[in-house]
Specification:
The chain is α/β, with parallel strands linked by helices. The protein has 14 helices and 12 strands. The N terminus is likely disordered.
């Protein structure tokens, strides 16, 4: 009996041990299994690139003729894309602008006509040297975009038979016809005080000994042009300075109402000896006006360009179609002439030309 009880007790103990072993095995298996990995945190956002012009103040000017506002707003907005803080361009005459640019009062403008404005860079700087030592033209914003000269009404050409300004001035009857104030001199409705074209006209008259028979009337150009329009409408003479791109040539149309008045090639000033391709819209073919067709470009302070290679790269590459500026000039003349409207037109031009502009911005960032 004792033996049987002992065997039963042993069997019970073995059973308990097997169960314990089984439980222990489960615990061991759980501890040997690797825990599931925790989910990886999302990648940190890329840091915003620092714009090269960030924190740099840029002081712009613009010419004191409204058509130039358009390209100046385009330049302003493109510089702002690079991070520059750009002032609202301030209206100023060229003769005042270039000395101020040289001494650092302004950093740039997009209103330069090199053939007219180069003499304005030759002034003596207060710190020594010339303005050209401290400022320069940059890029070719509108290559040969500016045709300029004198327009004369077709009826007067047909009446007196002249083909050049010199022939007009050699004809006393023609001189009397264009003498609007009775002082014995032909009156040329010219340029505003301080414009480069004012000096070109006066110097051309002096060079050829014409200043005893002709004089330039300088006042607000738009007012002078309105006078010429009124004269033409009343059957009177027109002798008017005009440039392109502008809406003026849509009012007195070359080839229909007026002609570009030629001068002989040897009568031009040095550097103003180009031929304008205007065909039948000139009194003579080939047509040498008083002015060579000019580029329209940016002028900038040299220290500003050296300190801001991104801006310098942008200005070197920047181009516009003169036709776009002419279209905007027509819109301005039609009444879309507020600063807000012109700035909006500049933004629209930028949006429509991203395929050209984006490479300029990329090059500017690389240059910086």
């Amino acid at each position: 009996m004792t033996t049987r009880r002992a065997r039963a007790l042993l069997a019970t103990l073995l059973t308990v041990c097997l169960l314990a072993a089984a439980c222990g095995g489960d615990d061991s298996s759980t501890s040997d299994t690797a825990p599931a990995p925790a989910p990886e945190p999302p990648p940190a956002p890329e840091p915003e690139p620092t714009l090269l012009g960030e924190g740099v103040q840029v002081t712009m000017a613009r010419g004191n003729w409204i058509e130039t506002n358009f390209q100046n707003y385009v330049v302003q907005q493109l510089l702002e894309e690079l991070g520059y803080e750009v002032s609202e361009p301030e209206e100023i005459a060229p003769a005042t602008f270039f000395p101020a640019l040289a001494q650092g009062d302004y950093d740039l403008w997009a209103s330069s006509w090199p053939l007219n404005h180069t003499p304005l860079l030759e002034g003596e700087s207060p710190g020594g040297g010339t303005f050209a030592d401290r400022a320069r033209f940059i890029g070719r914003m509108m290559a040969s975009g500016a045709l300029q000269g004198l327009l004369v009404d077709i009826p007067s050409v047909e009446t007196f038979g002249f083909t050049t300004l010199g022939e007009l001035l050699d004809n006393p009857e023609a001189v009397a016809h264009f003498d609007t104030d009775g002082d014995g001199k032909v009156d040329i409705n010219g340029c505003d005080d301080g414009w480069g074209c004012q000096k070109v006209i006066d110097d051309t008259l002096a060079k050829n000994g014409w200043d005893d028979r002709a004089q330039q009337i300088s006042a607000t150009h738009s007012a002078l042009f309105a006078e010429s329009q009124a004269s033409f409408a009343g059957g009177g003479p027109v002798l008017q300075y005009v440039w392109t791109p502008t809406a003026f040539v849509g009012k007195l149309v070359p080839g229909r109402d007026v002609l570009w008045l030629a001068i002989e090639p040897h009568q031009t000033l040095e550097g103003q000896d180009g031929v304008s391709a205007v065909g039948d819209a000139c009194t003579k073919d080939p047509c040498t006006t008083m002015f060579t067709p000019s580029d329209i470009v940016v002028a900038a302070n040299k220290d500003f360009l050296a300190a801001n290679p991104a801006a310098a790269s942008l200005l070197e590459n920047f181009e516009m179609d003169a036709l776009a500026v002419a279209v905007q000039a027509v819109a301005i003349d039609a009444g879309a002439d507020s600063e807000a409207e012109i700035a909006a037109a500049a933004a629209e031009w930028i949006a429509d030309n991203r395929d050209k502009i984006d490479p300029w911005i990329e090059a500017a960032l690389a240059a910086g």
